[in-house]
Amino acid sequence: MSFEPMRIAVLGVGLMGAGIASLLADAGHNVTAWDVRADALAELKAAFPRIATTPDLATAVGSAQVVMEAIAENLAAKHAVYASISAINATCIVASNTSSLSASLLASGLSSPERFAIAHFFNHPRIVPLVEVVPAEHTSEETLETLRAMLDHAGKLPVILRKEVPGFVANRLQAAMYREAFALAEEGVASFEDIDLIVRGALGSRWAAAGPMTVVDAAGLDIWQAVMTQLYPLLSNVTEAPAAIREAVERGELGAKTGKGLYGHTKEQDQALRDRIGEHFNLEFPAVPK
Q1: Superfamily of domain 7-160
Q2: For the domain with range 170-284, which CATH number is right: 1.20.1730.10, 3.40.109.40, 1.10.1040.10, 3.40.250.10?
Q3: Is 68 marked as a binding-site residue?
Q4: Tell me: the pLDDT tens digits for 78-116?
Q5: Is the pTM of this model over 0.85?
Q6: According to its UniProt record, where is this protein mainly located (predicted)?
Q7: What does the pLDDT look like over 153-178, one tens digit per residue?
Q8: To pair with 213 at 20 to 30 A between CA atoms, which of 92, 137, 228, 260?
């Protein structure tokens, strides 16, 4: 099937938006990036000259076939931009990179909600293959198929969810694991370092190679029935963020972005971590462009 470049607008050029814009431009699409911050647009243009940039929303979305929205995680701000998009270009597909807001609630801000879906990339967009595509209540099959084909051509791994659910799939899975991991640390069962090592040395590698459902099936459903029956009543069921995170945030220790979080950070260590994560993804999904 021949490739036809699309006209794509990317709104917001922070870490995620810039990564999405450069990924789609490298895939051969005609990408125009919009942001209210002139310095952010200049930085993106310097790194990726083939991406057009503009501070004018009408210029960005006027002729776009697809609009990838990656602005602040604020419903009112997104709806304000969506209202402008609807007035400028009512026929384009709009895909939000939100990681927490409801697809149907977001779609209600557009004049054509059937042309909306969530396209949830992961940090960093150029490294992590997965993109969760989440339909809203009225999203059309044509919209989903257009996004799937566009992402697939860009070397991503699009997974279209059967219906919307808060947090989608990946965030719900990792939130469940984080709840138990922090509970074990708070109870003094294991340190943060040892919990990381346990996941890296067993669970993580198996899940990366096969996925949790395949691992369960390979081990034996009867065995896991017994394990789940024994352990489920004992697992953490807290409903607030763990104390270790709350206290660190109060101190302004936000992780890599501030140089300290659960661990200390240097730029060199953080880059080495990104490189190592990229190498792991390359083993399983070598076709993904970097």
Answers
A1: NAD(P)-binding Rossmann-like Domain (3.40.50.720)
A2: 1.10.1040.10
A3: no
A4: 999 999 999 999 999 999 999 999 999 999 999 999 999
A5: yes
A6: cytoplasm
A7: 999 999 999 999 999 999 999 999 99
A8: 137
